[in-house]
Amino acid sequence: MIFKGQGLKQITLGVIIGNRDFFPDKLVSEARADILDCLKKLNINPVILDDQETKLGGVETFQEAVKCAELFRQHRDEIMGILVVLPNFGDERGVAETLKLAGLNVPVLVHGYPDDLNKLDVARRRDAWCGKISVCNNLYQFGIPYSLTSSHVVHPTNPEFEKDLQDFTAVCRVVKGLRNARIGAIGARPGGFNTVRYSEKLLQRSGVSVTTIDLSEILGRANKLDHEESRVKERLDRIKDYAPVGNTPQKALFQIAKMDVILNEFMEENALDATAIQCWTSVQQNYGCNVCTSMSMMSENMMPSACEVDVTGTLTMYAMQLASGSPSALVDWNNNYADDPEKCVLFHCGNWAKSFLPDIEISTAPILGTTVGEENTYGALSGRTPATPLTYGRISTDDPQGKIKAYIGEGQLTDDELNTFGNRAVSQIPNLQGLMQYVCKNGFEHHVVMNASHTAGILEEAYENYMGWEVYKHGSNGSK
């Protein structure tokens, strides 16, 4: 299984090098070289003052803050985050004023250099340990959210700093993605699924836009397509290349292909990042197949798609995808696993991204077939997810309390025996019983999202610190 980083693109960070002029100049020059080398290694594009524009390219005075802020404003459409570097104590006002004047409203990472015990004389000391506290104090006063490195001070050549920077860029991706997310809600919420109710208005306040369309419009357009159209044949070829078709009849494959054409056109027309589609049971009764294969293909191609018009479910899929660079899947917290209190079965009829299903095959949905006829459920996928790291979680709008909330955590998917159909996996999560207590007591949905990564810390930082959402991280502080 290949997951890590497959959907990551180069990111641009603005860089502020803080300075206090009574510290040695060479500390600023050395820091500039260190940071630029590190950013190049990690394929991060820097926007930074030229070393001739201000003293050594650092920021100390208000005039220098104005210059740096203007540079950032010129690149506001590119910059996704700001890295503050303190090679010495730095000037907390210069940093805060730069961020205030730039007005980018992006995540900020504050980094300080460590001192050398053998270089604490007047000529060689840094004092960034103290200066970082002052910078953070000023950012707090200015109301500017910021992130911290794992260690209070750390040298840029330390692998720990590289990990901090990679995690920070992931936070930047999540925040920018969520604040500009466009989700398509295709069809009405199924009548039997009150659990997927949500507030468009609360989402819009956080920057998430929802575009709706009646399912009949999608099905009507699909039914008007001829099997011989080139775009239908092209989609059919893509479907056959994507997964073995098993016993799926040609008629059903054409139905799947035609709907796939229309769904992709709808996404392109509305510049959508993700979709949530009515499935249970209108598509089967009125169109004669499942839409799972199309949803799986979209999710695999980093355009997440959730069933049952679960808009906040697909928003969670998108967030996790942004954090990890790999596809996500919407699943049910479905079954206990024998008597093991820390394991449970994750399941859905069959729309998980191909990355989760090495044994993928286009099949039917037997449970749904008991009411609509199994012959009308071709297009569901069958496959078992093997052992892999697991990040799980859920974003939800809490309408009565007027807030957006989320829970997240980490565990593992295992290779434990599981004899059933559909898309399926076995999860192992520390204190799973406590997590289920939390989910139930706080009114969360039966749907959860899984991603083959360990990125809960990234999501917590993005949700809580920058989106302003209420977050429960399971297993944090040893008590949850």
UniProtKB/TrEMBL annotation:
Domain (L-fucose isomerase C-terminal) ranges: 346-472
Keywords: Carbohydrate metabolism, Isomerase
Stored InterPro entries: Fuc_isomerase_C, Fucose_isomerase_N/cen_sf
Iron-sulfur among keywords: no
GO molecular function: isomerase activity
CDD domains, per database record: L-fuc_L-ara-isomerases
UniProt name for this protein: L-fucose/L-arabinose isomerase family protein
Lineage of the species this protein comes from: Bacteria, Pseudomonadati, Bacteroidota, Cytophagia, Cytophagales
